[in-house]
Amino acid sequence: MNEEYKEGFAPSEQNEADNNIDEDYIFRFPLEPEKIETVYDDPLLEMVRGLLADLLDCVILTYKGKRVRVDGFRLLQDLDTQYDIFPKKDDDLEQE
């Protein structure tokens, strides 16, 4: 095995000015992506729901200056069907 490469460490890059400095190592490790809870099987519905949920985490919607609490949406192609933005948790179901 090459001395300059050890598992978990990037190979050191040295030039003449760095010869007197102790070696620094760069640690590398995989990042596990956060598991996203999906509510709908339809990718379009899930994309819209996710975008609205993320938007509502950073803004407050208003109508004529008064706060509006939004919990769902409807698609223009199907105005009769209401979709929830935030998934219902088991605790929420017991309270209803």
Could you please describe the fold and organization of this structure?
The protein is of the alpha+beta class and 96 residues long. The chain has a domain at 33-95. Helices cover 21% and strands 16% of the residues. The protein is built from two helices and four strands. The protein has a two-stranded antiparallel sheet. The chain has a two-stranded antiparallel ribbon with strand order 3-4. A hairpin with a 2-residue loop joins strand 3 and strand 4 (78-84).
Put simply, the count of helices is 2
What's the total number of strands?
A: 4
Shape call: elongated
Low-confidence segments, ≥5 residues, pLDDT <50?
A: none
Q: How much is the average pLDDT?
A: 79
Termini Cα gap = 64 Å
Class derived from helix and strand content: alpha+beta
Strand order of the largest sheet: 1-2
Q: What is the percent of helical residues?
A: 10-25%
Radius of gyration, rounded?
Answer: 25 Å
Fraction of residues in β-strands: 15-25%
Summarize the helix and strand pattern as letters. Answer: HEEEEH
